[in-house]
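Minimal example, chain plus zinc ion.
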Amino acid sequence: MKILGIETSCDETGVAIYDEDKGLIANQLYTQIALHADYGGVVPELASRDHIRKTAPLIQAALSEARLTAKDIDGVAYTCGPGLVGALLVGATVARALAYAWEVPAVGVHHMEGHLLAPMLDDNPPCFPFVALLVSGGHTQLVRVDGVGQYTVIGESVDDAAGEAFDKTAKLLGLDYPGGAALSRLAEQGAPGRFVFPRPMTDRPGLDFSFSGLKTFAANTLNAVLKTELTLSEQTKADIAYAFQDAVVDTLAIKCKRALKETGYKRLVIAGGVSANKKLRESLTQMMKNLGGEVFYPQPQFCTDNGAMIAYAGLLRLKQGQQSGLAIDVKPRWAMAELPAL
Ligand code: KG4
Ligand code: ZN
């Protein structure tokens, strides 16, 4: 089976083709980052309009990259939620219309299931069961994964997602949206120990997270420095970035360790945009080594939003005969626990 996957949930248009026998045979991505940067965040209406412009050309590009024609496609997968309603509607409408015209089934995919399964695109995929840490711009969740569609959310953020905290703190430091990766690069120049940020919610039991306080802590640290220094030096910014990243990574690691202990599982999967973070990868790799377990991450290109993870998740579901009806439905809010097991 060859599945066309379409991702339009936020600010990336991703189109890919996954072949059951050959693996990923086309992967096209267009990012709207430059479009939204001037506004310091995603403008939903602009995102929808840009998806309209880009989705069809990217589908054509994916078909020619794979040297296929529409007749070769056996099914269409699209991100059905969670995400921005207008953006989701673009992908869903194009996907459903093509599936109808091509007389093939279509299936709506859960965006976070896509992220969660992204490490399966690798040569050394994790086996079930495992604990997944999903860290993106919109979500921070710890999930007990017992199989495809067998997801129990065992912890999540009560306020900002980890990526959101990265982006907001990056903005405070004068970095462009979305500043997660740039903050991480800046932190490499930072000196350990000059500032120490708290590790929120680690001093009490449970697996939930809270990241909004870290952004406030960063703002207060910055203001305190400004009382003695007239302007913020590059070194001070780097030192704040270091302390912030250190606190987020440490907090995530503490909760992952707790989740592994609670479930008794030995495998950890990290996925979503923040899983591209070098410090987080290093820290969790070391932790799993100490615990005698294994850690899996997607390749960097599959950490942030992409069509490949949607095509892959769609293939698994279409192969089992699951498909969506003709109505074009999107789910801006959608709990993973509602997904049917395979
Ligand atoms: O998964 P994703 O592409 O979109 C959502 O589904 O939200 O994640 C985007 C998030 C952004 O907040 C971005 O700043 C963050 O991932 N991110 C990073 C890094 N690369 C992307 N955060 C920290 N370090 C990185 N290297
Ligand atoms: Zn995402």
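The mean pLDDT is 97. The longest helix spans residues 234-263.
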